[in-house]
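FAQ
Q: What does a multi-component entry look like?
A: The components come first, one per line:
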Amino acid sequence: MQTNSYCTFRVGSIYLGVEVHRVQEVIRAQKMTRIPGSQEVVRGLMNLRGQIVTALDMRRRLNLGSAEGSEPLMNVVVRTPDGPVSLLVNEIGDVLVVDGDQFEPPPETLQGIHRELISGSYKLDGRLLLVLNLDVAIRLAA
Amino acid sequence: MWDSDALSLASAPSEQRSGVRQRREVRHSRAGGNPVSNVLGSRLRGNDGSTQVVHVTNHQAFGKSDDGLGNYCRLNPNNSYLLVKRGNTGKRNGARKHQTVSITGRLPALLIGSAWVISCRRVQRKAIPVEMLDDIVKEFLVESYENLDQLDRDLMALEDRPDDRDRLSSIFRTIHTIKGTSGFLAFPKLEHITHVGENLLVLLRDGALRLNAEITSALLAMVDAVRSILSNIEGVGGEGEEAYEDLVTRLERLKNGESASAPSVEIEVEQVVRELSAEVSAAVEAGSKPKKAAKGGRKKKAAGEPLTEAISAFAETLAATSPTQETSAEVCEIRPPQGAAAPAQKAEKADKNQDSGDGGDRAGSVTDSSVRIDVHLLDKLMNLVGELVLARNQILQYSQNIEDAAMVAASQRLNLITTELQEGVMKTRMQPIRNAWSKLPRVVRDLSISCGKQIQVKMDGAETELDKTILEAIKDPLTHIVRNSVDHGIEPPQVRVQNGKPAEGTLWLRAYHEGGQVNIEIADDGGGINVNRVREKAIEKGMVSAEQAAAMSDREAIQLILLPGFSTAPKVTNVSGRGVGMDVVKTNVEKIGGTLDIHSTMGQGTTLRIKIPLTLAIVPALVVTCDNDRYCIPQVSLLELVRLEGDRASHDIELMHSVPVYRLRGQLLPLVYLDEELGLRHRRTQEERQSADIVNIVVLSAEDRQFGLVVDHINDTQEIVVKPLGQHIKGIATYAGSTIMGDGTVSLILDVIGIAQQSHVLSQHGTRSLIDSSEGRNEQSRVGDSWLIVDPQDGTRAAIQLSTVARLEEVRTDAIEKTGRQQVVQYRGQIMPLVSLNDFGQVEPNEHGSISLVVYNDGTRNVGVAVGRIVDIVSQSDSQFEKSEGDTRIIAGRVTRVVNLAQVAMNA
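Then the predicted structure of the entire assembly, as tokens:
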């Protein structure tokens, strides 16, 4: 039986996971330099031990709006072919080991941006873990 | 820890080595799971009793290529090379990084890695794994390309001084090396061509033949052939289809002295031919079957006179059968030439040097003291130093708030060491511009011959050093400019003589440092640019209107040739005239932060000047604040800073229609508000613009234009490490990169040209559509006639011509140090002496504890002239001076001493 490890986090009310080997590290809120003129999703640049990392606001990326006081602050730094990118999320969860046969692709009724961003879900006890399609999530339309 | 059993097959008897070419394959065996360590510098013993020290930079696992890690060793018995390929055990970014280490020494040179013992086994040639061969070939290619470049230079130099034996020997050695290695690596064509060339070179070196243009051309053609074979090897792995028989024939003929310039040899051979063989003379008479005569000679195909062909073939037969014959290459090689014993011995010595593996053909001292380093390693070092600079900046910033003297001292030391390290690493990346120039004489030679012109190339300042990346970037533009000069610039000899010039034209290449930048000039003494024709062409092509063209000064009109699609050449040649070119040159130069300038005088020649920064990785920048965020502006684009306070802030900013402008010394400067441009706030209303208390204007130049960028605060200048932007923000035109500031926060680097385009200071598409005539003219008149008025605080006033001022700086008094009696400050990594403008000779600080300096650069060093207080900048031409007496004038109503900075600087 195939098992996969996921680094889990919460964005708004959604419980998401990213394959753990894509995650470089998880860090607290960092000082951010905003980039005037950039897309809304791009929250800014931060200094990660001498490396400049772009931070993407997952709440805005998932079109969840930005209610007051719900700004995501935790950084999930993921590896990409073009260097690390930080995903700003609300809360960090555990690293979960899930069974491969618990996976199910998204239903047809899931439409719009979420259909591209979410590649499926794992049926856990009492809740669903949505798998974030990282490569799509970090690619922004020009 | 040395497993001698595993070595049993390692050593070959030395006599075998020189004879049969053989290859060994290095195999490894586990040393019983017992890690063998610390072989660095160990004395290794082979079973023939010889010992030697092997130095390995890193003792990682070595083994055969199939150990799964990509590690293996390779012994090259021919010239005692040991090549070790080391693969990283881990994969990084998906790509495995390999490195090749070459170790030279006598056989058996074997290595033990941390976990492997390596043994040798003699194998057949074919048994070499492909990837192993690749590595050796790669090494060979790198070395050969370098040597070929040197060869081009040497041959060109030799044409001027055909008797330069040292140079001939050097050329000979280079070819010899390529021949040797290509034989070893089984590239028969390459070996054959270089062999023939070598034979010719032997005669030249020994004085049996004298170099002439014909021979030079043939040798250059050989170099080209070698180069194209090498590029074939590099590209497709084989030598390619072409047989180069023509070239071989040509070289052999020249070797046999069959050229107009060496008739005596020809006659001699002819006589020999007549006397010796009836069969041969029959063939000569018949002229149809020369091959028969050439039993021992090489096959010939090239069309030519049957007679000469037969002779050359026969001469070769003779050479092959009678070793005492004059033209035999082998004999010449062995016998020391008369009257030239010393150079020959030297050459032999150098040959030995080369065999022992230094791979270079330059003087021993140079090769002994230099090491070849992977550029990636240097890049990595450079990055690390960049990080160190950032860390240093952070520590310096923290240490300012700390009382602990030891901490402060330590951080000061860190500061100094980092600066020195930064300079050192920068230097490793520096290469003399000669590397980019070396190809140009060849280009000029070939081109001038095909154009029927006579041109000599003169180089000045070839030692001037530039960052490697920049050097690479200017290679193509330089070639283009030089081709242009040869094709359009310099006239044919007849025309030149008619115009009273020497028939031979001259092309100058000059390079020198100036104010942290490198200037490269390409000048010719040709016909110059016909400005009126440029105007006509531009009108004809619809680039400017007739009125615009007429309004342009000559200097501005010349810049039109930098527009895309422009060419004045009456006909399109294969060299130039297609109308692509100068704009590409300009774009390429600007891409690396440089500028391009053209001066031309009808009938006297054209000069192109390229100004480029020394390096791109670490640049000085001005830090400004806008809406509580800091931004960096590269100082290359910075012209000056203007601060308007109180009344001036509200009155001096005027509106032209709705566009804010500022009168900078009588010239209208368009103003761009940074916060508006970045979309941080709405456009200001007229009232808002004129109600500001303080306005900080950063005067910037973007391409040919100037504009004022209005920012909230001007903070500081700082050396910043440029980091590229990530994919998500790459597309935004206003930023050129990012950097990390002293306190660890990230700052964006502004792209001045991008901002100028976005704010329509520059038109966005076809950026260089037109040169604003009025502005250009003002700029021209401004520089020479502007005076910096200073108050030396001894009751007098002094004026300094602004064009002689390199920079204005403010330094804190605690930054002033002393060497002997001389006061100095550290300035841009150098020690800058200070002199005072006032009579007391001492530098007095102002009320803020700092000193205003006027920095003067005399081309080699900076001198800081302490000027007390800077009062103003006035624009006044010589004729406008109210009264002049000696060096005292009345400027702006006050008696003012005119100071010559160069004289003052001499006191420092």
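Q: Is there any commentary attached?
A: Sometimes. For this entry: The domain at 781-906 of chain B is CATH 2.40.50.180 (OB fold (Dihydrolipoamide Acetyltransferase, E2P)).
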